[in-house]
Amino acid sequence: MKIGINRQLWLVISLIALVGSAPTASAAGTTLSVATTSLGKIVVNGKGMTAYYYDLDKVNSGISACTGGCLTNWPAVISKSARPTLTGITGKVTVLARTKQIAINGRPIYTFIGDSIKGSTNGQGVGGVWYAISPSGMELNPANLAKGQGLP
Q: What is the phi/psi pair of residue 60, to 5°?
């Protein structure tokens, strides 16, 4: 069957738009555990990648302030179920109903595209708004680290 050039072009553009609009989320989002890093004990996803808070997210708002291009670099940690598997996490973990993004103590969590191996913390402090998370749900920002929070 021969398809006209205009129809082929339309199909290609449609496929590109479809792929480009797919939501970005970190894989293995149904498991959270704890790993020891240079920052101390931190929350990691099922692949061992560091979880981060975004300071522009409002606690208990149920939504993420990280959208569009932000999610390309900071994929949301999502859950396939309402009850993710937890190991060593003492903070309150919930799943945002609308997006299935995991939240700790009411704050959505993300991974960082610049963390290429387990335990990497390259996202720590980026832009002064991205910080790793302790097992209790504390943001490991400079003030909390200076108090000795999260250190081994």
A: 60, 20
